[in-house]
Design a protein that fits this description.
By secondary structure, the chain is of the alpha/beta class. The chain has one domain: 2-enoyl-CoA Hydratase, Chain A, domain 1 (Alpha-Beta Complex). Helices cover 33% and strands 22% of the residues. Strands 2, 3, 6, 8, 9, 10, 12, 13 and 14 form a nine-stranded mixed sheet that branches. Strands 7-16-11 form a three-stranded antiparallel sheet. A two-stranded antiparallel ribbon has the order 1-15. Strand 8, helix 4 and strand 9 form a beta-alpha-beta unit. The protein is globular.
Length: 332
């Protein structure tokens, strides 16, 4: 009986998000509000012209982070809001993207790439991407429009490829004596169902779609980066690299720190050393600086009484295609 109770709890946590679209269980008190407008905060400098720093962190998604009392804006919504605000300010001459992300959904990654490219084309402003702890897959994808990509000495980047995640719960359901009846209009209508194994034909279809999306990603790398065929052969294996290896493969332009990236952004834009470094926040902080990636009084972290946010462990429990480095997600 005890084992059955444990299995029931596990399967409930796994299956519930599949039906509700919820990423996990949250009971939040004091959840972050989306109502506060973005305000410009000067971190350094006193000049008229500005360099805007935009932090991009975590799982790239166009879905808001839902809490019990309120929602946090999605990464896509927050970044696009900042780009729109920056576009209205003629004093902003350069943008620095501070990226710390394993990646995310293919669509969210592609939206961000498209929006960053659009901002660059419309404003003619210079863009520098600084890669922090991890900037892999979608996290690297969104750096491609930058005029210069810089990585920290300890950055992990690469993973240029696609993963298709299909959760399966049939084994657990069999142990609990549970089943699902499906009526379908076509043989492939319930492809990627978590309640049965995929057929060889379905696996072939999934692989073809995955390969096509990977080809799109690699095509953008070729478009934006001066990689040769030998480097491309390594990159297409979707492996990860430390900064030195990424530099040799020309995935990045240089290795440095965040303040070096700000200097490069100002130099590319032809700005004076006294150019202002600004950020957009939803709250003000004492002793603020460029390493603060928060936008509200919650320091960028979810304040939770109970937070079983499974996508932090497995990025998504719903079937889908991801530009994501997902160690531990399974597969071979």
């Amino acid at each position: 009986m005890r084992m059955q109770r444990v299995l029931f709890i596990v399967i409930s946590l796994v299956i519930a998000p599949l039906f509700t679209g919820c990423g996990g269980l949250h009971v939040n008190i004091g959840a972050e509000s989306r109502k506060e407008p973005l305000k410009e905060i000067t971190l350094e400098g006193k000049g008229k012209e500005k360099i805007l720093v935009i932090p991009i962190r975590g799982f790239l998604s166009d879905a808001p982070d839902k809490g019990l009392l309120s929602d946090r804006p999605s990464v896509v919504e927050e970044v696009v809001s900042q780009l729109r605000k920056a576009e209205r300010d003629e004093q902003i001459k350069a943008v620095l993207l501070e990226i710390n992300s394993y990646g995310g959904s293919t669509t969210a990654s592609d939206i961000l790439y498209h929006e960053i490219m659009g901002y660059k084309e419309r404003t003619k402003n210079k863009i520098v991407a600084v890669l922090m702890d991890v900037a892999t897959s979608g996290g690297y994808y969104i750096a491609l429009p930058a005029d210069l990509i810089m990585a920290h000495p300890t950055t992990i980047t690469g993973s240029v490829g696609v993963i298709f995640i299909v959760p399966k719960v049939k084994g657990l359901m069999d142990k609990l004596g549970l089943g699902v009846e499906v009526s379908k209009s076509g043989m492939e209508k319930d492809m990627a169902s978590p309640f049965r194994p995929s057929t060889p034909e379905e696996q072939k279809i999934f692989q073809e779609l995955t390969n096509k999306m990977a080809t799109k990603f690699l095509g953008l790398v070729v478009k934006h980066r001066a990689v040769d065929q030998r480097a491309l052969a390594s990159i297409s294996a979707a492996r990860i690299y430390l900064a030195e290896e990424a530099l040799q493969l020309k995935l990045i332009d240089s290795i440095g720190y965040l303040n070096n990236g700000i200097h490069e952004a100002g130099s590319l834009a032809g700005l004076s050393k006294d150019a202002r470094v600004v950020v957009y926040r939803r709250a003000e902080y004492p002793n603020d600086n460029i390493y603060n990636t928060s936008m509200s009084g919650f320091n960028g972290a979810r304040r939770s009484l109970i937070d079983l946010n499974l996508p932090e462990i497995i990025p998504s429990l719903t079937p889908g295609f991801y530009y994501l480095w997902a160690p531990g997600a399974g597969g071979n």
